[in-house]
Amino acid sequence: MMACLELSKEVKMMKGEEIECTKDGTVDLDGKPAIREASGKWVAGIMILLNQALATLAFFGVGVNLVLFLTRVLKENNADAANSVSKWTGTVYICSLVGAFLSDSYWGRFKTCAIFQVIYVTGLALLALASQLYLLKPKGCGNRTTLCGEHSTMGIGLFYIAVYMIALGYGGYQPNIATFGADQFDEQHPGESHSKVAFFSYFYLFMNLGSLFSNTILDYFEDEGMWALGFWASAASAFAALLLFLGGTARYRHFKSSGNPLARFAQVLVAATKKSRVETPETEDDFYQGEDDDNTTGGRKMLHTHGFKFLDRAAVVTSRELDNQKQRDHNPWHLCPISQVEEVKCILRLLPIWLCTIIYSVVFTQMASLFVEQGDAMKTTIANFRIPAASMSTFDILSVAGVIFLNRRVLNPLVSRFKKCKGDHIGLTELQRMGIGLVIAVMAMLSAGIVECYRLKYASNDCKNCGGSSSLNIFWQVPQYAFIGASEVFMYVGQLEFFNAQAPDGLKSFGSALCMTSISLGNYVSSLLVSVVMKISATDKMPGWIPGNLNKGHLDRFYFLLAGLTLIDLVAYIACAKWYKNIKHSEKIQEYEEDDKV
């Protein structure tokens, strides 16, 4: 890989034709420099996008109605079911760190994606079997009117093994497939670098298009009690995704894994601590640069930046280390290249931005839990046709598709033209888009809270089965779903681009995993918040804000609470975004600074 990084252009002669290799250090399956015309680009990118669509179809075929499966089949109450879904979804995304670590350190992205997809398919098949053989008893149970009977310990055990295999498989695969898709485009090539930026928007679009089928067709069958059919369809879709992914093996470009990053981080911290009394030099050239063939960070060397000056001591060459260098006795626990120090600094700078995205993920996760329960308690019929509450997330998907188009074709060109008049050459930065996403998230929670106020106004308090007990039509939920979809485009697509661009070369999968881990912690925080709110709001005479019978609660107050928390988070985010400094590489230095980020 370093051979391609050091050469601006590598040309071979084959049958009298010039064959150009990629400039970003990617290799083919055999470990040789990747040939530009024979690998990667949109041929590989489209296969990965289709793979993502099918895998997402399978995931949401389980996830979108999981809260209803828990209440109707396993007979959990609303609060417990919402918490269970939040914990499960959180586990899905926390597993992304496992996949990212194995990918960046040892296996590489292709092997990691393949292995975790096999686990994913196995989990889906096991879930379908467990449901069909053990849980859906009597036959036809699990719809709105027929609850299932008691379940055996084996049936429940197989169910939880299956769903957490799905969590491990999908979670470990997801951050790597996004980064692997971006790897198919050479950012050192003008045309391909533009395609690489576009890939993340299309990646999120295909992910949502994949879930569209789940949220409409599969959701309808599952809502009618045909859970086994829905789960088998999900398993088949995931298996097709795996075959499609393996079918592109010869075309893919690869980055080699860079070794365990934890050891590199520990070396910098230990070396800096040992030199706590050493003064840092004033110029960058006085720091230890490493050997010419040193590749401790697994990619391009990073330039020195100001900030976290304590860590710079790890790259200060003392007289003792100068003698050791002459004897070719280099100890990485005493002296680290400045590029390795900058890798640690880079991650530390990303963390405040990442922490500010967690509250947004708390808002986002309501779409899969409380939005569904709220919709299920509204009028869901048009003539004789009943609309499944979970299928309302279709409007989220349509919003995502529409806003991606408007952002890429209208908003971003307009902003670019406006900024060009001021001497700037880019549209909205990733950090600016993420800030816009937080603003729209506040609007989504306010909209959901207002709808809930009106739902309660037209609800019946003395119902036994409160599904559809309010005369307020479920289509009043459309604005809150549309706002969530619009905020996703700005927040999650912005996150994918930001963390991929700003993560060190040897930690690109970790960068994508940060985005998913934000969703994970958002689910856990949501679960904790629901528990705390129920504990505080429930009294002897009041069942709390989110009781089993929503008509006796105050779900609107919970939504308004989330709107307030998101506003506070927005203020903190703006401060962190203004503080953040971009990563700088030796081969390609940023030509602009994000002085006015949000």
UniProtKB/TrEMBL annotation:
A Gene Ontology biological process in which this protein takes part is: transmembrane transport
Any one GO MF annotation of this record: transmembrane transporter activity
Recorded hits in CDD domains, A to Z, give: MFS_NPF7
Mind telling me which GO cellular component terms the entry cites? Answer: membrane
UniProt key word Cell inner membrane: no
Q: Which UniProt keywords apply?
A: Membrane, Transmembrane, Transmembrane helix
Q: Where in the cell is it found?
A: Membrane
Membrane-protein topology: Multi-pass membrane protein
Q: Name one Pfam family in it.
A: PTR2
Which residue ranges traverse the bilayer? none
Give the family from UniProt: Belongs to the major facilitator superfamily. Phosphate:H(+) symporter (TC 2.A.1.9) family.
**Protein name (database record):** Protein NRT1/ PTR FAMILY 7.3
The species is: Nicotiana tabacum
Gene name of the encoded protein: LOC107768465
